[in-house]
Amino acid sequence: MNSAQFINSIRSRVKVIFNSFRGYVNEAKESRRFSYEIIGWKENGDIASDQIIVQVIGTSTCIKITPLEIYKDDQWIKGFSPLAVKTISTLAVMIQNAPKYKLMLQDFRNSVEQEILVLRSEENNDFIRITATELMKHFNIIENLSPEDAFRVGVSYGVGDILREREMIENLNK
Fold it and tell me: At a CB cut-off of 8 Å and minimum separation 6, what does 167 contact?
């Protein structure tokens, strides 16, 4: 290898290193474009009250805030990187779609036709005692159950409806 080849080899290596450094500098500049960064997650018992820990970039200031609060405020959203916005949006949608009622008890003591359901509101922990037949009139409650609980309620109502229909047919045949 002569001296010209050696110098060209060093120049090409310097270019590679310089281009890599330029990429790191651009990446650092890009990260400073955003005002906030997600640095953690604080669980508070249920997903709706869990909080994201946000750091204000360039300071040691940290803020605890729910994903829904960030999601609903355009000024907050604008301060995050696209990846952070994706994370916040996913969490906010999960929170909004989380079941608001939970089936706690199915009571068959009287009969299947008069089954009593006990539901708990996830928002305020109130209990609702209702029959499957009455619950069918409250679609807003059914759509706020988990898919599994809604299925159980539907099966209970269906079985009760079949038994009521069978009873009506037997009474007509008498």
Answer: 113
